Predict the structure.
Amino acid sequence: MNILVCRTDKLGDFITALPTMYVLKHHNPKNRIIACVSPLNKTLAESCDFIDEVIVDYAQSIWSFASEFRSLNIDASITLFSNTRVALAQFLARIPTRIAPATKIAQIFYTHRVKQRRSEVKMAEFEYNLELTKTLFPDIDLEYKKPLLNFEDAKNIYDIFCINNDIEKEVIAFHVGFGGSSDANWNLDEYEELIHAVLIENKYQVVLTFGPDEKDLYEEMQGRFMAYNVVFYFSQESILYFAKLISNFKLFVSTSTGTYHLASLVGTPTMTFFADTLFASSKRWKGVGDEKLQQNFMIPSQKERKKELFSEIKKVLYSLQ
């Protein structure tokens, strides 16, 4: 069976789709899994051995998009997060079975509309995605391997990174940026304190990571840590390269954004900060990796409680020494 799986939004959202593609492939190895993704996620999708083909939504005309679907002889599609463009293209391509959550006006273009009520957050985003596969295969096994991605050349990439940056200790990385569906984060002064909690004993190498659109933030943090042995990584390579690099880190500290999901995907221990709301909580956005490797903290809006949590997190970082 040729199965199209669509998730054309941001990095973290796409990563929540990967367990779904994995279980579809492993339910029957003869299934051909076709992933429809945004340009940002193309190289990561192509690295997955459980994905057979990748289609990129480049915002091409709706007719070109539908024609591309039609050429692949797709038997069924599962759209994990729908929009009118993706829904209409599938409708025009005449895909026989089209499955999606029963939300938004786009649902009229699907043959199977599944009521999930994700706003109630009865499970995590990736678990809602997995549930949709049962519409196609009621007996499907929803278990998947963790970490979901492993790379043969990841150690070589890390070794070269260490040589180039004179790193001789295990790495604790901080990603202080803010993006995606993240609704809460520490400010830069607070991050500076957290980073110093690691630097004080000089046991680990601190690496600060920045996305390609975070140049100002990169320069700001360079100014703050000019006198310290901190490595600054400004990403100019692909997401796939970054995934391989961080898979070797001791710990990845960040808010709930795409890089956190990437770290969990490749099996890196994470310390992650979430908003104290159900919609943006760790209950909804926990990583796809092993939960035992995830330390999740909800940042309260109330000042005193927030201060107490900050002190607790500093103690956790001190305890790593």
In short: The first strand starts at residue 2 and ends at 6. The radius of gyration is 21 Å.
